[in-house]
Design a protein that fits this description.
Helices cover 29% and strands 27% of the residues. It has 164 residues and is of the alpha+beta class. It has one domain: Gcn5-related N-acetyltransferase (GNAT) (Aminopeptidase, 3-Layer(aba) Sandwich).
Amino acid sequence: MDPTGTAGTCSATTVATVRGVAEVVVEEVGDVTEELVDAFARLVPQLSSSAPPPGTRELQAMLESPCTTVFVARLEGVIVGTLTLVVFRIPTGVRARIEDVVVLDAARGRGAGDALSRAALVKAADLGARNVDLSSRPSREAANRLYQRLGFETRETNTYRYVL
C-alpha cells in the first residue's frame, strides 16, 4: 500500500531532450548504491551548508518510507540532480510536497530541474494528490523562475518552523 491508501505504481524512466542538448534521463530511485551516496555527497552541499549529506542508512530510510519518492536526473549517464517527492494522506485529502531539489552547478540550465519537477508532478497525480506544494528561497532566482514557468503559484501563507 502507498500513502494514499491505494495500490502504488512504480514510475518508468522519463527521458527529455532540452534545447537540442544531451538528454536528461529522470529515474525513480529503487536502491541505495555507492553512486547514489556519492551523488548526494556532491549535491547536498549546494543545497545546504548546515545539513550533512545523507549516508547509506539515511538514504535507505528515505527509500523505504511509503511517503517518499526519490528521483535522480542523469546527463550522459551521470547523476546531476535530485528531487524528493513526499505524498501523504491527511483528513482533507492526499497532499504532496516537492522537497530538496538540487542540480549540480555545472549542469544547470540543461533541463534537469524541469525534468525532475515534471516527473514528480506526474507521480503526485498518479498517487491522487490534487496539488503539489513546494517552497524555495527568494535568492534561488532561477529555481523560482522554473517553478513559475511550470505553473506553480505563490500562496498567501505563513510558513513556520519550530526548532527542536
